[in-house]
UniProtKB/TrEMBL annotation:
Cyclic nucleotide-binding domain segment(s): 31-109
Protein's UniProt name: Crp/Fnr family transcriptional regulator
Organism whose genome encodes this protein: Mucilaginibacter defluvii
Organism domain of life: Bacteria
InterPro entries according to UniProt: cNMP-bd_dom (IPR000595), cNMP-bd_dom_sf (IPR018490), RmlC-like_jellyroll (IPR014710)
Amino acid sequence: MSTDLILKSIGKYIGLTDEEREYFLSLLHPKELTRKQFLLKEFEVCKYSAFVNSGCLRGYTVDENGLEHVMNFAPAGWWIADMYSLLSQKPGTLNIDAIEPTEILLLSKVKQELLYHEVPKFERFFRIITENSLVAYQQRLMDNLSLPAEERYNNFCRRYPTLIHQLPKKDIAAYIGVTPEFFSRMMAKLLRAEK
């Protein structure tokens, strides 16, 4: 499995020596997921952060009525984990599965702590990633509380431009917080407005 994408991602924030790069890569565990295969199920303890090398993962919860609520997507070049569970090492609430065949690189919590000790600049990298994630979650929460569905869809398109035509419509609907039927009507209305 290629490591070019993860090294390019890290290189945006920190510079690594050849030795540091090799040490980091030695801590990663490659894994391939088939479509709909779970990386994590709710009530499990999250032991890894996952970097998506190719394909796409989604993180979601299921409510008491069986409705899915998509929290986030992780296309190629993105990290994903159940942050609450990873940091607390308590059972989580997030399901993470593959939308399509997906290659990931896993970094365990234990090895991440080793990495911080051996290459301290990685603390900066993961702090930046975590801060960016926190800002995105807060903005998403504010959007869901205050914006109409069409605006939430536009924000989805800006956040995940490569996924607009790649994802099942039901997943986009679950992300913006509407039913698939409402989403279909909204998209038909938007298409009519464009003509």
